[in-house]
Amino acid sequence: MQIKWDDIRYLVLLARHGRMSQVAREVGVDVTTVSRRLKSLEKELETTLFDRVDNRYLPTDALQHVLSNAESAEREIVHFQHNLIGKDTALQGRLRITSIHNFINFYLLPRLGEFYKLHPNIEIELIADSEQLDIGRYEADLAIRMGRPTQESVVTRRLTKLYYSVYMHKDLISTEKSISEMPWILNEKSFQYLPESLWQQQNFPNVKANLYCNVGPAMLTAVRNKLGVAILPCYMAHSDLNLTPLNKPTALRELWTLVHPERRHLAKIRVFIDWLDLQIQSDIQLFQGS
Q: Cβ(49)–Cβ(38) under 8 Å?
């Protein structure tokens, strides 16, 4: 039998991610379709391709032996496709951008209308995901990351430093309690390695937390509802007149863009990065919490 390219892609993605839900999201189908394609392929090949262990799909020995060939095929086809796409110099078509929920929801989306006024023929696809998509495999055209990139095979640009402060609802301000004595809202255990969590542990190590969250929007909502104090990015919290910073803003992260070298000259990517850079510079006081 002849295996189709789409089937190879499903196999490579499932081996890479281990979960059908992630494959479905990346390909743009539902989980049922992924499952049906896998079962059909195993039936045609008369071979079990994956073992399911702890809710993850792991390649069997049979698949593992040929997986490197499949990944090579994926790279060659993707390279071919994007070489063709990369010749496009028109300010039109879809631009796939990935970043974290905080930045997309609290900064980018409220300002995106201004970009559309300038470039109405460019379509934006936003992937808000804490799992970093791979620019090298063209999983996104542009990544906006909250930290200095470590990848050597991408083109980067620093946009700004990201400042953080401890914020409280103005109705809870009390001269009788220090910051350490107030109830805190902290990142849950698996996010204690983040720069803002490490800063809190170093500067306010003995605080009492009454709530733990795994995402910034939840922490901001909790502060707005007077559940305690939390360390938040200034660009998220500083414009809220009901919230008060309790300390001097501190630069804990940096905002960077990442683009694959072969796509760096694509017109729609260039104009978006330039627009975003200018937008951030005009809002620099918001990012600095000043």
A: yes
